């Protein structure tokens, strides 16, 4: 029986813990969704800012190009560290761009770490190109083209010839992502045309790894503890954004419910466990302050100060008859069980607002409010009979009860009167009720 009760208490605990987990999950995941929603627009702005910073950095190369001195070079490939110059005609004046390209590469590395794939500067009309670095595939493909045709096609395709007329910083152009056939790297190319006197002089083409956008998102998520993505399938929330000066259409920034759930599940369980523990340790503490550990009735030291402030009430004092004999014959442990059972029966006979206190070893005080003489007697009889009518642990146990109705009386006077009435019940043969 005790095992059964234990088990159902455990199940109740588990159930209330699970309910708390669910509640926490609901509250935390909803808050986290709102948090991610608030960040979606900011992520779009961050992506826009990052690409624009990249464009600005590339544009700063323009003055350097214009101010660079030329040297004469012959047909062939000329290597200067990571930089290679491919010249297709003899006696070609070639700008010395090494320092500027180094600087540009460093600055780009700061804006977009590990994302710069290559930088190419092509003169227009093209007799040479500067590559940083020159990948083997480039050289191959470059040799099969007539450079000027290749550049003209690029200018045509990307509409680079008159970007100087355009506004909003979109003098640069970024292509859609594509796979570079020589390297199989997924990249985008950013073109910046250098115009002088409304004529196109050169094109800087910076290849950026397509993963740059994902890097920005990853960094943003890490910095802000968000779970945002772009163009994720089945997102539950999304907002539209566009890469600045890019050829591709809008993208969708947002988040997926599973990501929200995955991130909030752990903290929700942890928080629920903490609340659960805090609540139960508070309950246990509160209970141990108020309740007698053995019987579960109120403790005397908790209620006596409150009783001392009362002056109108009805009270009963109840004492188990011949209890010493029970102890002596069956041992203290059985005696304890008898006390517990009597307390349990007592608790079932009174209302929730009545206060039952374990006053001493096998003595109890019950306090009632708004109850008259005859009702108090009936209540005491009801308690007495409830205990006497059942065998308790195979024993016939009875109680004697004394009662008193206090009207402008201190508690200690009332207690004395009720105790005297209890004495009379004992004197009259026990298993009796006497009201003073
Ligand atoms: N097992 C047990 N015994 C207790 C506890 N507190 C007090 N007692 C014992 O309860 C007995 C109370 O005996 P008494 O009040 O003298 O008298 P009684 O045997 O109950 O007889 P009457 O009250 O005259 O009917 C004492 O032997 C105490 O040691 C307790 O928590 N557990």
UniProtKB/TrEMBL annotation:
InterPro entries: Diguanylate_Cyclase, GGDEF_dom, Nucleotide_cyclase, Rev_trsase/Diguanyl_cyclase. Gene3D superfamilies: 3.30.70.270. Its EC number is 2.7.7.65. One of its GO terms (cellular component) is plasma membrane. The keyword Electron transport does not apply. It catalyses: 2 GTP = 3',3'-c-di-GMP + 2 diphosphate. Keywords: Membrane, Nucleotidyltransferase, Transferase, Transmembrane, Transmembrane helix. GO terms for biological process: cell adhesion involved in single-species biofilm formation; negative regulation of bacterial-type flagellum-dependent cell motility. The keyword Transmembrane helix applies. The chain crosses the membrane at residues 12-35, 265-282. Residues 311-436 form the GGDEF domain. Pfam families: GGDEF. GO terms for molecular function: diguanylate cyclase activity. It comes from the Bacteria. This is diguanylate cyclase. It comes from Grimontia celer.
